[in-house]
Amino acid sequence: MTDRSTHTHFSAPARVLHWLVAALVIAMLFIGMAMVSTVSAARPWLLASHKAIGVVILGLVLVRLVVRWRRPPPPLPADLPRWIRMAAAASHIALYALMLTLPLAGWAMLSAAGDPLWIAGGMHLPPLWPVDAGDYAALRHLHRWLAWLLALAFLAHLGAALWHALIRRDGVFAGMVRRGPRSGAVIKAPPGPAPGPSQGD
Amino acid sequence: MQAEPDHPPPRVRASTILRRGVVGIVPLLVAAAFGYAGGWLDPARLTPAVIVDDLQRNAGLQPGYRRNHAKGVCVVGHFDSTGAAARHSRAALFAPGRTPLVGRFAIGGGNPAAADGAGPVRSLALRLTQADGQQWRTGMNNMPVFPVSTPTAFRAQLLANRPDPATGKPDPAKQAAFFAAHPEAAVFRAWAKSTAPSRSYADQDYYGLNAFVFVDANGRRQPVRWRVVAEASPVDEPPEETLEQDLVARLRQGPLRWTLHVVFAAPGDPTADATRVWPADRPDIVAGEIVLTRVEAQDHGACRDLNFDPLVLPDGIQASDDPLLPARSAVYAVSHLRRTSEGTGAAQADRSHGHD
Fold first, then answer.
1. pTM of the entire structure?
2. Which of A25, A26, A28, A39 is the best residue to mutate to test the B interface, defined by the most B CB atoms within 10 Å of its own CB?
3. A172: domain CATH number?
């Protein structure tokens, strides 16, 4: 059932991992925004959560890459314009790249600052970068800019998902929310685009 | 392109409009929520950047230097634990034995070229590194209390101390208004008035100011404060011209020593108010000895790139509910990022204080 041309839904592990990582990434964006802009008692707690969740996301994204490699995502509807398919491919590469590099940049940045790498729960990470103040500053700025890019990529992803779900109603969103047809069942072609003017170019 | 059919386009149904609206509005709402989390919708929020901006405004921008306690000197040494604190805190550094440390003496204020005698505040910051990699960072001052107990009051004091552009000095009326509105600052003020600026870092005691919590091996939590008490007598030898020269001269004679005292709160003692001391009869133990062996100029010493964030604590020491602690941590982080972004190379060398 891994034939790219026939399956319409993501596998159960892919779906569970997607929504879990989605929740964690959204939480991280909010935590990151909040923790750098407050002097309140929430800050130490947010900072500790941020580091711990970052490690979890890094691990989960690596698992997702394996899951994705073992069973590629269902194909996009054939009637999607070429540029949208390319944008979709590029945005998914960007999302994965950012989900991997952001935690690594955070880890490297704390290493460069000489901070102890004891994460909540007693986890002890090895340093990822030699101690150097200039490198710390560069990595800290990199971490911020990557976070902005991830926030933008996430908003674009959210908008595209809603467009598939509510405007086109083409089964792309359903493929990430619902279970696909049972193995062995006759696989129907994905439902066509919403009635209306053709998307043809 | 297809030619338009000559009948009117079908009416767009209300539900379609609603769905399009959702597609457009939901990402915008999420973006607005990000902004809310970041404080963009709340210009009055006290952010660490606001406090660092005020520090810079009061002292003038000094690229590469700490935004407060800008003038200082690095030291290196170790902590010899007696083991007396080990039954109160499970931190490895309180077990009998030696823990290496990096430290920094400084005077108050954001001007790295200030005269040593400009004010009475001196500070000692330490970073102790355990064998397991955990660290204890602490920034201590030579006064037993802090002027204010909240970040908001700290900002109010910064605003009151902002130099008047006309005179280059703070407006005494604003300062008087600050002290009138903040009677809790009276203890600090009395200390500052009665304390002559010391001519040596070595004869000062340094207080942790904020309360912390010790956690023992069984998880029992006890609120504590700590201080280091100088073993050097002030009359040992006449001080040199500057604090740094004095430190260099004394360390040439041999190590300098402070005993580390830990004081335990009684129930009801304030842990969230750095303007109030605890009664003098509280249990007080000597956890060990801080021994400083070497001095390094701050433009290239080991302390230069360190952020003495008081919330970098080993397992066995935790923050109390003192609101100044998260604020210090946040403000130090912004100061540290700004100065490390400005470069730490020879361009920032404090040449007037080079001594090697």
1. 0.90
2. A39
3. 1.20.950
